[in-house]
Amino acid sequence: MPPGESGGSIVIRLDEVLAARGMTLTELSQRVEVTIANLSILKTGKGKAIRFSTLTRLCEVLDCQPGDLLHYTPPSPDDA
Predict the structure, then answer these.
(1) Structural domain of residue 31, as residue ranges?
(2) How far apart are CA 51 and CA 19, in angstroms?
(3) Cα distance between residue 38 and residue 14, in whole Å
(4) Is pTM, for the whole model, over 0.85?
(5) What is the DSSP string of 16-32?
(6) What angle do CA 17, 23, 53 make, to 5 degrees?
(7) Contact 4, 66 (CB under 8 A)
(8) CA dist., res. 15 & res. 45, Å (int)
(9) CATH no. for residue 44?
(10) Which of 5, 24, 40, 79 could cross-link 75 (Cys pair, CB 3.0–4.6 Å)?
(11) What total of structural domains would you count in the chain?
């Protein structure tokens, strides 16, 4: 495995946080000023990166912490 690639992954919990806030992706998009397409990529876990400025706006609008949106899943023993 290349250096820095542990086999673990970051899971995006945007769906859960939106549901808990009773907010739609469209409303979030308007309030955060990020396109629905970009939020959808993030929500589905297909994004490769997130800007700190975007993460900051998400946390401000959703009244949450980064850890509420991002979760690290360690590699399974089979990945070793």
Answers:
(1) 9-71
(2) 23
(3) 12
(4) no
(5) HHHHHHT--HHHHHHHH
(6) 65
(7) no
(8) 11
(9) 1.10.260.40
(10) 79
(11) 1
- Identity of residue 15: D
Domain presence at residue 76: no
> What residues contact 73, with CB distance under 8 A and at least 6 apart?
8, 9, 10, 11
Work out the average pLDDT over 18-38.
Answer: 97
| Contact criterion met (CB below 8 Å) for 57 and 23 | no
Q: Which two tokens stand for residue 42?
A: 């993030």
Q: Which amino acid is at 44?
A: T
Query: What's the pLDDT tens digit per position in 20-29?
Result: 999 999 999 9
